[in-house]
Amino acid sequence: MNIILKSLLVGLMFGLCAPASAQVRIKDIVTVEGVRSNHLVGYGLVVGLNGTGDSLRNAPFTQNAIEGMLERLGIGNLSEEQMRTANTAAVMVTASLPAFARAGSTIDVVVSSLGDSSSLRGGTLIVTPLSAADGEIYAVAQGPIAVAGYAAQGLNASIVEGVPTGARIDNGAIVEREVPFAFKDMGRVLLALRNPDFVTAKRVEKAINDAIGPIATALDPRTIAIEEGGKVSLFDLMADIEPLLVEPDQVAKVVIDARSGTIVIGADVRIDRVAVSQGGLTVTVRDDFDVSQPEALSIGGTTVIVPNSTVEVEKRDAQFAVIDGSVSLQRLVDGLNAIGVGATETISILQAIKAAGALHADLEII
């Protein structure tokens, strides 16, 4: 087990000395009905590229877009040869229109190449309307784009860092149309838990009713209804409710990222009494190369390279470690450390314990 993994496990065990759950604000675990963002999308052109734009032969839609743009600007009757350009690229422009966005405010946009452009670096997005799912235009984007990646190419070599065909424009779109939503006219508000849970919903209901009055009702594991209380408006109620602290409950879960070997074990994970053994063989193959030279004054002799392979087999005796029943996360980590296993072996052990029915938690592999 390497030093980094040991350090992570030691830090994890020290962290277990703290309470299993912490109190959080209600605003951090719920969303409010109707208060959400809306996706916008548009098709546009990026100009000013240094020869890295679309090839019009492979991207005819780029040529059609250029022709339409020039016609709107009063420039037409251009032949196909006159339209040849390598400094323009067709792009898809996406954005998220936040809740309560007002006309004249700005939002960020993401620009992504649609054709065979090799890089958008140095380009400028020209006026691009952005529409929502209803077909209405809600914003207009334009401006110089910022590309995080880059690409360089020579005759026999090339290098690409990041993704030069994707970019963004900070505050690159101006909101032209507002999404109608009258929060002040609502008779009640529905709070939706990001992670549905009966216990958490009940705790949110109790925290609100204890602090403000009997205005909250848990409808299901996700939804808590807030009724308007007398002369106090819903706006004032929400301003008083959001800072309230509750302790959310969570499902016992073990999350495994098999690609990186990352293991995250929830504090409520429990394991029945089991005996775990882990062992196996380590085979090491090493190739050394010797040089064989002919003797002096020999006729027809040549120098050759002779491979010399060495195979070593190291057997590690399997060791059993008994993990007591209904153990906590710290006892589980202690038990796995006792038999000296690493991250890869731990993943296999957890899967085997789950298959044996001794792991009382959801095992999620991503």
Task: Write structural notes for this entry.
GO terms for molecular function: structural molecule activity. It is a single chain. The chain has 366 residues and is of the alpha+beta class. The chain folds into 3 domains: 3-16 and 253-294 and 304-365, no CATH class; 24-34 and 182-246, Gyrase A, domain 2; 38-175, no CATH class. It is 19% helix and 38% strand. The protein contains 6 helices and 21 strands. It has a 6-stranded antiparallel barrel with strand order 3-4-5-10-7-6. Strands 2-11-13-12 form a 4-stranded antiparallel beta sheet, with helices on one face. β6 (124-131) and β7 form a beta hairpin. The longest helix is centred in the middle third of the chain and has 14 residues, at 198-211. The two termini are 23 Å apart. The relative contact order is 0.13. Mean pLDDT is 79; it is low at 1-20.
